[in-house]
Design a protein that fits this description.
This protein is α+β, with helices and mostly antiparallel strands. It contains 8 helices and 15 strands. The protein is globular.
């Protein structure tokens, strides 16, 4: 068995501190099998400033944390050519759920030793002219982004599902959608009306809602879902209906392309893979969503899930 050179990144506040203990347990399990292991806590500084040296010379990287930690590692890992394994330790862990990854140290060791690698698309969101923000899951503007910005403004440490209750309740009463216009792959602009815009790279979403159903992470395309509504109550109705009917809801506009240009009649909040985002973390009235096809190598778990098969197909 070849010796694997592995770096383990962990978010110190993921899972109310569970991230660090998981990272230590996985490091010990890998070291016991003779592998070369380093552990690195994620920093608030831009990943480009501190992550590349940690990735240099490594065969794989284990990301212990939530979807935000995985998103931070995606671009540096893509540039270094180091495959990522998502060890779930956050609130939703949508990337790990889709891939079928586990946080059991024995399962992580098995995946690293087998080291079956697939490449998935890297989404890029240019918000209000900012430098492209990478994403793996989705970027969205509307009700959910408003909730996430509200939560982020008052966040003190780790969050749980209960943390969302207050912001969701207030948004149902107060949030109002902007009017959106979209152009796909340079085509003619299309007036979508008012509602929620979700641009998905994976068919995974919080609370097991799937507005981006049918999205594939390695097909070189982004999937847009527009959910028309007039306010917070309507947006909440869409969320519940999507969950109950697995995305089969009349009235949803679905588009697909490599580049999605969006304009709004006023600035709106954005969320990227569950994190507050935007021009200076504030609202913006324009966005361009694009991708780098199959740019991010990921480690497929031994009990491989949806992505373990052949090339992307529809």
């Amino acid at each position: 068995m070849p010796v694997r050179r592995v770096v383990i990144f962990f978010n110190p506040i993921s899972g109310t501190g569970r991230g660090e203990s998981l990272a230590r347990a996985i490091a010990a399990a890998l070291a016991a099998r003779g592998h070369d292991v380093a552990t690195v806590a994620t920093l608030r500084a831009a990943p480009r400033e501190w992550m590349p040296p940690a990735l240099a010379g490594r065969d794989a990287a284990v990301v212990v944390g939530g979807d935000g930690a995985m998103r931070l590692a995606a671009e540096p890992a893509a540039e270094a050519g180091v495959p990522l394994y998502h060890c779930p330790a956050g609130t939703e862990n949508l990337v790990a759920r889709y891939l079928g990854s586990t946080n059991d140290p024995a399962g992580v060791v098995a995946a690293i030793e087998r080291l079956t690698v697939r490449a998935i698309d890297l989404g890029l969101a240019s918000l209000g002219g900012e430098r492209d923000v990478p994403f793996l899951l989705m970027a969205s503007a509307g009700f959910d982004a408003h909730v996430i910005h509200t939560l982020a403004a008052g966040r003190r440490g780790a969050i749980t599902h209960l943390s969302y209750v207050g912001p969701i309740g207030r948004a149902i009463l107060a949030w109002r959608p902007a009017r959106a216009v979209v152009a796909v792959d340079g085509g003619a602009p299309q007036d979508l009306g008012t509602g929620v815009v979700v641009v998905a790279n994976l068919p995974a979403y919080a609370f097991r809602i799937d507005p981006g159903r049918g999205a594939l992470p390695d097909d070189g395309l982004l999937d847009l879902a527009f959910l028309p509504c007039r306010g917070g109550l309507g947006a909440a109705w869409w969320a519940v209906t999507h969950k109950l009917r697995a995305g089969e809801v009349p009235g949803v506009v679905r588009l697909r392309g490599q580049r999605i240009d969006l304009r709004f009649d006023r600035p709106v909040d954005w969320q990227i893979d569950g994190d507050a985002a935007g021009s200076g973390h504030g609202p913006t009235d324009r966005a361009v969503l694009s991708l780098r096809p199959r740019a991010v190598p990921v480690v497929v778990p031994v009990t491989a899930g949806a992505i373990a098969g052949g090339p992307a197909s529809r």
